[in-house]
Amino acid sequence: MPNLTIPITSSGLTYETLLPDGTSYKSSSSQFSNTIGEKKRITWTLGTTYADISGTNLFVKVGLFQQGVINNLTPTLPINHQVTFPVGLAAGTYPMAQVLTPGANANLNNNCQVYLEIVSSSSFKIIVEFYQIYDETQYQANSYHDNHNKLLKDFIQATSELTISANNNCYNSASSQFAITAKFEKPGVVHSPDPYPYTDNATIAVGTGSWYAGFYNRDPQDATPYFINPVFEFTRGGNPVTNLSGFANTDVLFKIDAPVSVSKVLFWIIRTDTNDNTKTMYDNYEANFEEIINTNANIGAAGNKFTTPVINVALVSGSTYKAGCSIERLNLVSNAKYRVIAIVYYKSGGTYQSNSFISNEYTVDDLPNYDGNGFDVQAALSDYNRQFNGNDLECAIEERIKSTVKLQYAFDKWKNDIYERLGLVVTNDIRRYLQNVIVSIYDSNVDIVLGTVQNIYDYQVATKQSLLGLTYTIPTNMTMEFSDNWSEFSYTWRNRFEANTPCIGTLVNGVPTLPVQGVQYWGDKTLTIKWSFIFIYDDYAVPFQDEVVVYQQIRVIDYYREISIIHIDEENSDYDDQSNFCSDLQPCFAGIISNALTDRKLIVNILPENGTVNTVEEAEVWEGTQLEQLTTDKIINEEEDYATLYSENAGKFCVDLSKLSLNSSYQISALAKKFVDTGYRVTEKNNPSVIENRITDTNHLRVTE
Hints:
By secondary structure, the chain is mainly beta. The protein has two helices and 47 strands. 2% of the residues lie in helices and 48% in strands. The protein is elongated, with a radius of gyration of 40 Å.
C-alpha cells in the first residue's frame, strides 16, 4: 500500500482586529483583548513538502467557539468550507464556499468567511474572518441559530438577552477556543509502480487556545471593564429623547470614562425587532457598522443610518471622552426598534484595550408633532386692573386672576406648517384639528419617601362638539376667540382659601393616588398654570394626537402680609378691636397698610365664616381694565383709595349688617391693589421661571360676628 499522506506543517498563527472597512487595526502572533461586536481575523500559516498540491480539495470546519477538544475527524460534515488548490498554484486569495447538508439555511449559518491564500507551491494560509457574536459552543453544525440573538446573547442557548449566563462560554470562562479542522484530499493520484489511482489526504486540527472575549460593559471572564461609566445621549434639537424619529434626525452622543485615553470608537446600529432567519445576521439586523470619525465617507452616504454631523473622539473633561454622530431619519422603519453599540479602543505602544457597550432599545414612533413653527405664542397673566405679559405673577389669596394665551398665525403660518409637517392641505383655521383646550392649576413638591407629588386644584376642559366641526363646549369662566390670524384663550379664577376643602386630585410620580394629599388653600404656594392644546390629525396617513403645552405660574401671598383690618369706632375718631355687632348697625372698618405703600386701591371680599370660593362676594368702587367690576349690597360706603385716616394709610368701608344673617359670623378681607405696575414679564414656551419679585397685592382676613 503506497503512502497516501499529504504532509502538512503549521508555522504561524496571527490574530487581527479589523475596522469596519476591513483594514487591520491590531495584529499580533498572540491573543489580545476581544469584545463582542468586533470583526476579527485569524490566519494559520501552513506548509507542505508534497510534490504538487494543485488539484487538492480543501475542507475546513470551523468551531466558533469549540468547548474542550478540537479534534474532529469528519470535517466534511455537516457544515464546511471548500476550495480546490488551483492548477499552477497562482499566488492569491481564494474564497472558500460554505457547503451545507440539504435543507440547511446558508445565510443563517454563515457566521464566518474562510479563505485560502496561496503564498507559493509549498506555503499557504487558511484565513477565517468573523464577527465576535454569541458562543456557538461547538463546531458549526445544523444546530438552531437565531439571527436576532447573535449580538444580544452570550451563547447560543442563552435564555435571556444582554446578560452573562451561568453556562461556560467565551465571555465568562477559559473553556472556549476558536478551532478549525482542515482535511486535504487529492483524488486520482497514481503511486508508481501501482497503476491504480488513490486519494492522498491529510487532516489537521488546530486551535487558538482559550479564547477570551468581553460581553457588553464587561471585560473577558465577566470582569470589570477597562472603560467605565458609559452614557448614550439621544437628542433632537438639543432636547433629550427616548425614541427615534422618521421625521427628524436623532443625534447620538456616546460618553465614556477612560483610565488613560480613548483611541477609537466604532458604532453599530442594529434593528432588534426582527427575526428573519432567511437572511444573514447583518441583513436581519439591517445593520450599519462604522468608525466614528469625520473622514469616514460612509457616514452620510445613501442608505446608511449613520449621518453627519460627526463628533470625533474628544476629551470632555477629566477622564470622560465623547464621540457621536446622527441617525438618518429617512433610513429608519416606522415603529421599528433599534439599539446602538459602541466599541471603544485604547492603543498605545504595547497597551491595547477594548470594550463594548450597548444602548437602550429605541422605537421609531416619533410623529410629526408641532415643532414651534405653526404659530407664535403670547402668554399673559392679569389681575383686576393690569395685564402682565409672560408666565410669572405674584398675587394674593382670594384675588381674582386671569390667564390668557394667544396663538398668532398670520400670513397662513398655520396652514403652511400643516402642509410642511403633514403634507395636508387645509385652511388657516386652527379649529380644523384643535380638539380640546385644557387648563389646569397644580403644584409640585418632592417628598423624600414618595417622590414627586402633584396636587391638582383646578382642571377645566373645552371640548370640540364634533371631530370636523368648528364649535366647542366651553366651561364657565373660560373664553375662546378665533380669527383667521389668531386665537385667544383665557380662564379666570379666584385664588382659593378653603383649608377644609380637598383638592380635586393627587398624582404621585404621575400616578393618581387616593386619598388626595392637598387642600384648596393656596396661600404661600407656588402654583403652575398649564394650558394644553390637544390636536387630532385625523386625516394624516397614521392618525395621531398631538399636545402643545404652555406653562405659567403664580406665587400666592397668604393673609396678614403688610395689611390688617381694624374697626373704626362709632364716633369715627379712631380704631378699636370690636368684632360683635347688632344687626341694625352699619359698622365701618379700614384696611391698613404701610405708609410706604402708595397708589393702592381697595377691594373688599365678604363671605360667611367657613364659606367657599362660591360664596365670596366682592366689592370695589373703581373700574379695572381687565376683569369685571363686582359689587355687593353687603359692603357700603367703600372708598376707592388707601389714604391717611387717623394717622394710618387706610382703605375705609362699611358693612350693612341688615343684609347679613342674624347670629352668624362672617369673614371680611381687604386687598390693597397697586394701581400702576411697571413690571415686565417675558413670554416663554417652556416651564416658567421667576423673572422678578412683584409685591403688588396684599390681603387681610377678619372674622366679624
